[in-house]
Every structure is written in C-alpha cells, then in structure tokens.
Amino acid sequence: MFFIFDLETIPDIEFIRRVLNDQESEEDLLLEKASEELARNSSGFLPPMYHRMVSWVGLWIENTGGPKQKVAWSGKDEKQGLLKIFDAIGTYKDFGLIHHNGKGFDIPVLTYRAMKHGLQMPVRMHDYDIRYRYSRHNVDLVDEFSNYGASSWPKLKHLGQLIGIPFKQTGEGNEVYAMYQRDELDLIEHYCYEDVMATYIVWLYHEYTAGHIPEDQFENLRDRAMKKLEEIQAGPPK
C-alpha cells in the first residue's frame, strides 16, 4: 500500500515572534522580516520549521495503482490533526509514501510539529525503507523527474500543463493563510485534495512512462482519476 498525501500550512506566528524577538510588529511586517531573515531561498518561502499544519489529505492506493480510501483533516487544533495523520499512516505496517516535494517540506513539517507537541510518529516513518534517499518506498516526484537533483525540480502545476491537465484551480499556496484568517478551513482542505489528486495523476503518468503500469490499466486509472479531479475542481460541496 502507498499513501499519497499533502499538507497545507500557515506561518507559525507565535514561534516566528520568539525567533525574531519581535512581539510588536504587525503580522505583515513580521512575515516580511521573517522572509528576509529566515528564508533560505529567493522566493522568501519560510523553511519547514516555521510552519504549522492546518489541513492534510491522504489517498491510500493499492500496489497496482488503484485508489482505495481517502482520509483527511482540517482545523485549528494542530495536535489533533497530527494525531489523526499519524493514526491514518499507521493503518498499514509496511506502507510506502508518494508525494511532491514531501522530503523537502511535508515530512520535515510533520517531524518538527510532532516534536513541538511531544508526539511520537509512526516508527515506519524512520525506517531505512523510508529514510533512504533512493528508496522505492518513499517516492518524491521532484526526485523522480529531476534524477535526484541532476536536473531542475519541476512544479506540480507545470507537470500538469505538460500533460495537458489543469491543476491548481482552487487556489495557490500563498492564499492558504488568507483563507485560514477567513475561517475557510473546508476550502483549504478542498484545495489540499486537489493537490493530492494532481499528485496521483502525475504519478500514474510517471509509472506508465517508466513501463511499470500496462497501457490498459493506466488508461482506466487515469480516466477515473481525471473524473474525480473534475469533480473537485467544480467546487467544494455546498
């Protein structure tokens, strides 16, 4: 079994204030300072340590590639969300992971936040099968397409454009904090679900291109996934 997942996060304002020793600045100015002083990239996107989780969506798939079960959470009680994702991940003993930049962001976020809340992660998350850089049990699409950094890392949105599939219809990542401030948690989760389905579709294309899935099976799974993606992009349930 494989667990395809994605997290949605917002800046941990309280922690950032402690790190910068700034209890006075307005949030906009604080985040601007954080981008300048704490970010390690030209975009100003904060490293995983400075994020807190507000939503996650996971999709269990069979080893054959077929979807089995969706699980999800969104809310303001981060500890509860962590407990739920760790419980979900622990459903199967020898699971694998599939994600887009999960090694660089999502998994470190889970580790940092588990430490913050005094929680234990599933033991499997730290097994050699998962931690090994070239593991076939922990598939990061940015590694697969960049040949582990030999080439540039592709954005999920651009991978969708390459294969003619529109991704990112619900919103962009930098809009999540604004949605959170408006208490639109259901919308954040819906946005996260689109990312997971997009990741699943790109993974299917990758597996077919690599010769791991026969054509008839690929076409069946792709068509079903595309139908679900269209339902997601039509908007969240009323």
TrEMBL record:
GO terms for molecular function: nucleic acid binding. It comes from the Bacteria. SUPFAM superfamilies: Ribonuclease H-like (SSF53098). Residues 44-230 form the Predicted 3'-5' exonuclease PolB-like domain. This is Predicted 3'-5' exonuclease PolB-like domain-containing protein. It comes from Gracilimonas mengyeensis.
